[in-house]
């Protein structure tokens, strides 16, 4: 039907590292070029949609890699949020922090499962999410 399913498969929690961001951005580009009629974003994990940013990317980073990481992160969110085709996050597990932002960047969100959490845990720490 022209609708693509993109499945996050970076065990154990689909944390967003540079390589995943590069691959996902390339996938979004491919879907745009193929004139996809829609995309469903989900997770291969039965309990975690995405835990958000990979903490190891920010721990003692090399300056060239961290610049590329942040640039690719922003590029991915802008492409997902501004895609020409409808996007749906099929949230099949916990989705804190950057995982929540990933879901929020989609046009529609559906959360399934017995009892999962979603949200910006930064707000509990008093950190204001950027615009």
From TrEMBL:
SUPFAM superfamilies the record matches: ClpP/crotonase
Gene3D superfamilies found in the cross-reference section: 2-enoyl-CoA Hydratase, Chain A, domain 1 (3.90.226.10)
Pfam families tied to this protein: ECH_1
Domain of life: Eukaryota
PANTHER family tied to this protein: ENOYL-COA DELTA ISOMERASE 1, MITOCHONDRIAL, ENOYL-COA HYDRATASE-RELATED
Family: Belongs to the enoyl-CoA hydratase/isomerase family.
Protein name: Uncharacterized protein
Organism: Timema podura
Lineage of the species this protein comes from: Eukaryota, Metazoa, Ecdysozoa, Arthropoda, Hexapoda
């Amino acid at each position: 039907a022209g609708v693509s399913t993109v499945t996050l498969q970076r065990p154990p929690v689909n944390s967003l590292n540079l390589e995943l961001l590069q691959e996902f951005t390339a996938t979004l580009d491919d879907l745009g070029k193929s004139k996809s009629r829609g995309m469903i974003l989900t997770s291969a994990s039965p309990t975690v949609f995405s835990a958000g940013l990979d903490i190891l990317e920010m721990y003692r980073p090399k300056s060239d890699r961290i610049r590329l990481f942040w640039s690719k992160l922003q590029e991915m969110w802008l492409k997902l949020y501004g895609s020409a085709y409808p996007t749906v996050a099929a949230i099949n597990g916990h989705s804190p922090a950057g995982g929540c932002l990933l879901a929020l960047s989609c046009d529609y969100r559906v959360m399934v499962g017995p009892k999962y959490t979603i949200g910006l845990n930064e707000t509990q720490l008093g950190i204001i999410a950027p615009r």
